[in-house]
Write a structure and sequence with these properties.
The protein is mainly α. 68% of the residues lie in helices and 6% in strands. The protein has a 3-stranded mixed beta sheet. The protein is elongated. The two termini are 31 Å apart.
Length: 235
């Protein structure tokens, strides 16, 4: 006889837990790495904002403006309104880490200017990925309530798969932006040869957060397939 303690235990939860642990580990690693190299003041003395403005100018990008925003490591490039937004930890700091993060976001601006295909693809996927993330679990829940309606359940799983597709397309976009950043910093004189490897470590740590997010989403999708993928509507 099954113990009441395990009556409602779903062993597939282990997949969710693994994904959560991966995301937490990646987040902790990027924060600690940034904090480590945020203590190294760049010999050039430029701030993240100044570095970003310099890189944009050198790249021939004149329609992007740099703005400070609240938060820590909330830096982002918005192609919709052509703004490069730098967090408080980056905008006014002159550390090696801050300049590296600013250069990474400039990498996205360069991608946008050059019509980098994976970025265009990611932008195109965003609406349906958001729709899938919003509707997938309600559809699956309704399908379960409606006597395991396979059509609704499978539609929910299909929509959730677009969230994974978005994560996968994001990987080359982020890695390429970091590659561009390192190339720009190596060629532009903003950092010394000894400082560039420090930036590489910061950007590698940041990239791991996207890898962890993709793995966590994959594990969540795998769990849904294990639980409901073989379900058939007998009605």
């Amino acid at each position: 006889m099954t113990s009441p303690i395990f009556a409602f235990f779903d062993p597939t939860y282990i997949l969710v837990i693994i994904g959560l642990l991966l995301s937490m580990a990646a987040s902790g690693y990027v924060n600690s790495t940034f904090a480590k190299y945020d203590r190294y003041r760049a010999q050039s003395g430029v701030t993240g904002t100044s570095a970003a403005e310099y890189i944009l100018q050198q790249s021939g990008i004149t329609d992007v403006t740099v703005h400070p925003i609240a938060g820590n490591l909330t830096d982002n490039y918005n192609g919709g309104n052509k703004t490069l937004n730098l967090s408080e930890a980056t905008a006014n700091a002159s550390s090696v880490a801050a300049i590296g993060v600013a250069a990474h976001e400039c990498g996205h601006a360069v991608q946008d200017a050059k019509n980098y295909l994976p970025m265009r693809l990611r932008t195109a996927i965003v609406p349906i990925a958001n729709l899938g993330s919003t509707l997938s679990f309600p559809l699956i829940l309704i399908g379960v309530v409606m006597s395991m309606n396979a059509t609704l359940i499978h539609l929910g799983i299909f929509l959730f798969s677009f969230a994974l597709l978005f994560q996968l397309v994001t990987l080359p976009v982020e890695f390429n932006a970091s590659h561009r950043a390192l190339q720009i910093l190596s060629d532009g004189g903003l950092l010394t040869p000894a400082e560039v490897p420090m930036v590489r470590k910061v950007l590698t740590a940041a990239a791991l957060t996207y890898v962890a997010a993709a793995l966590a989403t994959f594990l969540q999708l795998l769990r849904l397939i294990i639980l409901f993928g073989g379900n058939r509507d007998d009605n």
